[in-house]
Amino acid sequence: MSGTSLLYRGAVRLATTLLPAAALLDPKLAKARAVRSGVLARAKAWGARARDRSRPLVWFHAPSVGEGLQAEAVITAFREQHPGCQLAYTHFSPSAEALAARIGADYADYLPWDTPGAVDALLDALQPSVLAFTKLDLWPELATRATARGVRVVLVAATVRPGSGRLGWPARDLLAPGYAALDAVGAVDPADAVRLSALGARPDRIVVTGDPRYDSVLAKVAGVRSDDPLVAWGRGAGTLVAGSTWEGDEAVILPAFAAVRKEHPAARLILVPHEPTAAHLAQVDRAAAASGLAAPVRLSTATSPAPFLLVDKVGVLMALYGGGTMAYVGGGYQRAGLHSVLEPAAWGLPILMGPGWPESRDAVALRDADGAVGLPAGPGAIAEMTRRWSEWLANDAERARRGARARAIVEGGRGASRKSAELVAAGLPPR
Q1: Which of helix, strand or coil describes residue 134?
Q2: HEC secondary structure over 234-280
Q3: Which CATH number is 166's domain given?
Q4: Banded pLDDT at 29 (limits 50, 70, 90)
Q5: Fewer Cβ atoms within 10 A, N terminus or C terminus of the chain?
Q6: pLDDT confidence tier of residue 1, bands split at 50, 70 and 90
């Protein structure tokens, strides 16, 4: 198996050399550098103290929270199948620290930079039997060096969007050795399988296993108690839960809500900004006043359900969807893209979303199944949202039909975690 190119190694070396200077100008880079201080020493200490070499170790890597949730679903299924293995979990982004702690791996830490020395040191410390990358965050130096040691290297929940920069030059050439090193690839769907082959993965090693996020979100919905206080905020009236919203979303939602209230005075809105900073919350207050709405009530100070509840906390959206009548998913008016539509779909809610929905595979599936509606860009968005919102409040049967269609899409994705776990387990030594 060929290793990485001199060009790739040179590029990584240049990036790590320039990082200290760049970190002075970018707080995110500064933190990325700081959190990796001592990572190899910690791994070496754990390996000497806690690595049980009589047991196989399976190492999962996911860069950030989204990929981490997919990895978590696979890890859960893997543990059920192989409880005797040790588990390692690495991530790249500081945002995934809390998730890494929650997963409960035997070893969890940041992934060091993809240099030969760092990779060899980490492989020496962990001594894995299997290395499983998640989604697309495959590091060529780590993949090729693991393969050279006889470690089974797998990519699970693998997906490549059609316009991915990895498909073009020079990224494809630089990353190709890593994809060629893969022993198995679990693609989300057949189109992803084709694109993964174009990246360098061997076609005979690619199978379609589906997306573990479907199992993950279904498990999270099942884990919300019916008497959860967060669920109660939406009950008792027709409530739209608008999740992960940005200013562009709110510019449509708030005037539409004002119009809906004229026809349906009991209608409620729970607005959950993606970033509930003081500045953003104040902006929502001003936008609400400009739309002729009463000032929203903050969740942190609310004592009973309100016509307009503004959520000033994080980590509560999943349960809030559980009390909703319908949902709006934010991000469709942002360049960053639409947020996850699977959570409200798993609750059986019909969904409204902004014009960026075609970039989301899940949103396309939900819209095609009649479980979600995409709003237009431009001035017609407010009128269309008002119409749909009012229609779903007035027509329980139509709302329920669309919600059932949304839930069916998520149900149809069950089993991907188990299939992915089996792909990982195929590399374990015989018992």
Answers
A1: strand
A2: CCCCCEEEEEEECHHHHHHHHHHHHHHHHHCCCCEEEEEECCCCHHH
A3: 3.40.50.11720
A4: confident
A5: C
A6: low
In 3D space, the residue among 369, 408, 372 whose CA is nearest the CA of residue 388 turns out to be: 372
Q: Which tens digit of pLDDT belongs to each residue from 140-192?
A: 999 999 999 999 999 999 999 888 899 999 999 999 999 999 999 999 999 99
170 and 76 assigned to the same domain: yes
Whether residues 115 and 150 share a domain: the answer is yes
Q: How many domains does the chain have?
A: 2
pTM: 0.88
Are residues 181 and 227 both part of a single domain? no
Spatial separation of the C-alpha atoms in residues 316 and 298, rounded to whole Å = 13
Neighbours of 81 (CB within 10 A): 13
- Indicate whether 335 and 391 sit together in one domain: yes
Cα separation, 312 vs 298, whole angstroms: 6
The domain of 109 spans: 6-210+415-425
Query: Nearest Cα to 140, choosing from 328, 330, 2?
Result: 2
